[in-house]
Amino acid sequence: MKRAIALLLALVLALGLMACASETTPTADTPADTGGDAADAPADTSTDTGDADADTTDDGTADRVWRIGVTTQSWEHEFLKNLVNALRAVDEELPNVELLLYDSEDSIEKQLSDVDTMIADQVDGVLLNPLSFEGTSAAVDACNAAGIPVVEFISYTENENYETFVGTDVKSSGIMAGEFVAEALGGSGSVFEIQGQIGHTAQINRGAGIAEALEAYPDITVVASQSGEFSKETAMNLTEAWLLQYDVGEIDAIIAHNDQMALGAMNACIAAGRPEIKIVGIDGDMEALLAVQDGTMAATIVDYCEEEARMAVEEMVSILEGNEPAGQIYVDYVCVSTPEEAEEWIARRS
What we know:
It is built from 13 helices and 12 strands. By secondary structure, the chain is an alpha/beta fold.
């Protein structure tokens, strides 16, 4: 009996030693199960959050550089040169913004193609200075489908599915130009109008503003209204034709939908020896400001594009950071009609 008890105790002791052996730390011959590749473990389990804290906030936007595509009307226009220079200045000043600038070259097809390129390039947002009220509308739909916000500036599209419009009340520039001419003529006379590119929002709205302003003066007649296509040369040719058709005293003033066309009209009047004709443009181009300064142009209605460019970029950044779109942001026009006023703007834009 004692021998049987001894054997039983020996068996229990052996089983206990085997159990202890199975719980010892693994050796090189018996690797532990880590649940993955040990070489990847440091990257997956790192607790160093210094870089993440510096680069992100709760919404992940701090220190983010926003890539924003920008498409505009042709850079050949003086006003657009001012606008593009303003955009480049904003790009230099804002460290959290990278602007990708595209020149539409006044081609609707190219502007739409450029927007497609931006979408393929996965920009964060699009600033759209539409060439056509109707024709560029498709660009808004394309951006919406790609989940890219759109801010339109300076001009706008028929498609209102953009986030915010930044610019001027375009019609008010026409009203301002019309009222200046009416007062300069003493409430009576013959006015000729050089329209912009037909279908462009500036042509539509500036024309409407001029008509509204002059409607209050029954003794002022708009004798002719034709498109100069926003071109100095085209407007000059058009004015030359008018000067051949209408004698001295039959043209009292010419209102152009932009300064380049006004300058073309001015050059035609100077060449024909018709300095009595009052010429008014819109935009505040440097050449127009100089012409107001020396008295060869009666006035220019300044479009403060530098401020519009800044506000458009800042609005886009605000939207990308998760804020509600403003919907509309307006900058006022300024009528410049004296040498002193012109000098102030010349200094500002030099």
